[in-house]
Amino acid sequence: xxxxxxxxxxxxxxxxMFPVSTRALPIRGTxxxxxxxxxxLAYIGAGAVANTQLLVVDSEGRxxxxxxxxxxxxxxxxxxxxRGDKIALLCYVRPDSQDKTAARPQRQPYNLYxxxxxxxxxxxxxxxxxxxxxxxMPDGKALCFDGTLAGRGRGILTVRDEPxxxxxxxx
Length: 171
Description:
Blueprint: E1 10-12, E2 25-27, E3 29-34, E4 40-45, E5 53-58, E6 66-70, E7 74-80, E8 86-92, E9 110-116, E10 123-128, E11 130-136, E12 142-149, E13 153-160, E14 167-169
Antiparallel strand pairs: 1-2, 3-4, 4-5, 5-6, 7-8, 8-9, 9-10, 11-12, 12-13, 13-14
């Protein structure tokens, strides 16, 4: 007999900090983050495209989850921007050990993306050998994270919310 895949679920319950309903809201997925106003929840959906599809649902459970984008790799974390208009995602893509040709150089495994909450194409902000904890700066114009730069070691880094932006070391 074949084993069924593990079923991942997140259940939202009423909390005094967020205006969610008193009834449980079943969500099949992982890696979730509330919008700044607490009215929406972003999460990575489980299923056929597990760990790749970003969905948003209203925290009252009145609407069906809405797909925002599909990403390559496994999402390590996600965060809403302070203004609530974008979501930052940290994805891990297993390095391609088969293709190391000059035509296709080895890429970094950790990629930081942003995507508009309304959907559309995601923007790759940077690519790193390692990236850990991540969050938006309070003004929403840059991201701050624990990461490693090739040849410079590990530290606290910032990067502006722009395609392939330059990294700045804070610590």
